[in-house]
Amino acid sequence: MAKLVMFSARRFLQTSAKRAAVEVEGPSAISGGPEGGYKIWKNISIFIAVPAIALCMVNCWLEHKKGHERPPFVAYEHMRIRTKRFPWGDGNKSLFHNPHANALPDGYEDEH
């Protein structure tokens, strides 16, 4: 019985694979030929992705030139809670601490 089930399953998979391979015609990304969908992706990369990256780069550069004004410090009791010291430095500053942008529990460093 098991032999008959295995034979039927193998035959079904072989015929469906042959049928699927025959149905693919013309330029396609899965046809296996050199005329696949690479042309579409190449054009999308050149005419859409590259200009989009350039626009994002210009936007970042213009925003950086404007400068940043940091928000005023408000001592909310639910923020900047230190239940345990950090294992580096003085234990109060995070690993990627920026004294201009990141406040300590008692305020910005240069305001003291």
What does this structure look like?
It comes from Henosepilachna vigintioctopunctata. It is found in: Mitochondrion inner membrane. It is a single-pass membrane protein. Pfam families: COX6A (PF02046). The chain contains two helices and no strands. It has helices at 2-23, 38-66. The chain is elongated and about 80 Å long. The mean pLDDT is 82.
Shape: elongated
Q: How can the largest sheet be summarized?
A: none
Uncertain segments: none
Roughly what fraction of the amino acids lie in strands?
under 5%
Helicity, in percent?
A: 40-55%
Structural class: mainly alpha
Order of helices and strands: HH
Rounded mean pLDDT is 82
Q: Distance between termini?
A: 84 Å
Give a concise summary.
This protein is mostly helical. The chain is 46% helix and 0% strand.
Jot down its keywords:
transmembrane helix, 2 helices, transmembrane, 112 residues, single chain, Cyt_c_oxidase_su6a_CS, mainly alpha, transit peptide
Secondary structure topology:
Elements: H1 2-23, H2 38-66
